[in-house]
Amino acid sequence: MNLTEILNLLKAKPEDVPQHQPDDLGLIRPHRRGHVTRVELSFDDKQHLLKLADLATTVWRLRQRMRPPGTEAPSEQFSRAYRDLDAVCDALSALGLEIHDHTGKLFDPGQSLRVAEWVTIAGLEQQRVHETIKPTIYFLGNRIQQGIVIVETPE
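and the corresponding structure tokens:
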């Protein structure tokens, strides 16, 4: 089964897909009665998904570099290129890719994130993601790349 056939097979909306996230890049297809079917991918299809995850990560990094820290808008010098980058993000989204940046969000040890570093912060009440090193990438609701983060933790 090739990637095109899988895309045609998986017509479900991402929010309808169960939260189970297989690590081996098998995809999950939901059915009406709550049952799911696992679609096994060929080696080539898995490689294509990994390349899409790499592309999405690169686009995410470019967007981060174009924004001043703590803002959602690009720097004036990047405003024109940023619009083109937004078009690339829209195209990736249309293909079924979702990019999740975890920076600033509360950290739950049960999350499927890899912690690269723990930073102790005085006066902090809850663990929080200080920085996303690599975003989590989903394809049609199935995780294809695990996020890597730096977490702030109370003393």
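(Above: one complete record from the training split.) Residues 3-154 form one domain.
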